[in-house]
Design brief:
alpha/beta, Rossmann fold, six-stranded mixed β-sheet, binds pyridoxal-5'-phosphate, TrpB-like_PALP, ACCD_DCysDesulf, TrpB-like_PALP_sf
């Protein structure tokens, strides 16, 4: 049965390309009996709005339009790709955007924050402790602020990961499986970086709904494996509420690798920066230090250890993040 999708505003350039990574396969996978490596180029969903958040925001924007909202409120770190994408989506659709940003800011804006400002988003900055402990209150404060001024606001959770945003990667899974089918295979493994869980949740649920035997593994960039196992199931439960669907969130295969988080969220060891340089050099593919670079570095270690030996084809979903590379420029001193 075809999947019936809720209202959506088309914003991304789809389908994104699926490309083989033959030089990386030859160097890092084939010598260990591993699979052919492919990359699903979701860093090419758009230019300024590039990355995985745009797929989710197509459905969130659809809901905002249907509910008569003219304002989007969301949250994230100062270098949040999700906030940058939301800022541009709001501008594109003629909606106001209020960002609740974690961290302090002084001097010239860089990376994603610069784009937030260019897009005209209103930015509120909060110290991490306040950001985490008062998050619900902050959303409420800003929603009331706009509603008292005659606007209607839609609050979008971290990373647009919830029962609505999950549609983005149900559709993303359908597209990815179709790309592979057209090339004559079904991927044994699909891998993505996982940060707020929604991409992994959508890919996992999408593969389940489509009856694919592909296994989805999220490489965590923060929190823990247990956290994401629960978060993915929460998103799926929220998606399922009020639907006629037999999916049992508790029975989904939710595979998380939390071995490559390193020192912490958005903090990486030099090995990750070296992987970013090598992948750019070998394949012309640009990864970011917070998500895709860390996840891809983890994947190369796992290939080295023979983890994916039983697989023929492995697809890495490139979720974007380019703007976050430049604020990390001081970590690339080894290139000089
Ligand atoms: C947000 C983000 C992720 C993580 O996706 P989630 O759905 O939040 O788990 C991965 N890569 C990039 C570049 C991102 O911006």
């Amino acid at each position: 049965m075809p999947i019936e999708y809720p209202p959506r505003i088309s914003l991304a350039r789809l389908p994104t390309p699926l490309q083989p990574l033959d030089r990386l396969t030859e160097k890092y996978s084939a010598p260990h009996g591993g699979p052919r490596l492919w990359v699903k180029r979701d860093d090419l969903t758009e230019s300024g709005m590039s990355g995985n958040k745009l797929r989710k925001l197509e459905f969130i924007a659809g809901a905002a339009r249907d509910r008569g909202c003219d304002t989007l409120i969301t949250c994230g770190g100062i270098q949040s790709n999700h906030c940058r994408t939301t800022a541009l989506v709001g501008a594109r659709l003629g909606m106001r955007v209020q960002l609740i940003l974690r961290g302090e800011h002084s001097g010239a804006a860089d990376g994603n924050l610069l784009v937030d400002q260019l897009a005209g988003a209103s930015c509120g900055f909060y110290p991490p402790r306040e950001y985490f402990s008062r998050q619900a209150e902050l959303f409420e404060y800003w929603r009331d602020f706009y509603e008292h001024r005659g606007h209607r606001a839609l609050c979008i959770p971290t990373g647009a990961s919830d029962g609505l945003g999950i549609w983005g990667y149900i559709a993303g899974a359908e597209e990815l499986l179709e790309d592979c089918r057209a090339l004559g295979f079904e991927p044994d493994q699909i891998i993505c970086a996982t940060g707020s869980g929604g991409t992994q949740a959508g890919l996992t649920l999408g593969c389940h709904l489509l009856g694919a035997r592909s296994r989805v593994t999220g490489f965590a960039v923060c929190d823990s494996a247990e956290y994401f196992q629960q978060k993915v199931r929460e998103d799926v439960s929220e998606w399922k509420a009020g639907r006629e669907d037999a999916t049992d969130p508790g029975k989904l295969d939710v595979t998380v690798n939390a071995d490559y988080i390193g020192p912490g969220y958005a903090i990486a060891d030099e090995a990750v920066y070296r992987t970013i340089a090598e992948v750019a050099n070998l394949e012309g593919l640009l990864l970011d230090p917070v998500y895709t670079g860390k996840a891809f570095h983890g994947l190369l270690q796992e290939l080295h250890g023979g983890r994916y030996q039983h697989c023929e084809n492995l697809v890495f979903v490139h979720t974007g993040g380019h703007f976050g590379l430049f604020p990390h420029r001081e970590h690339f001193g080894f290139l000089q």
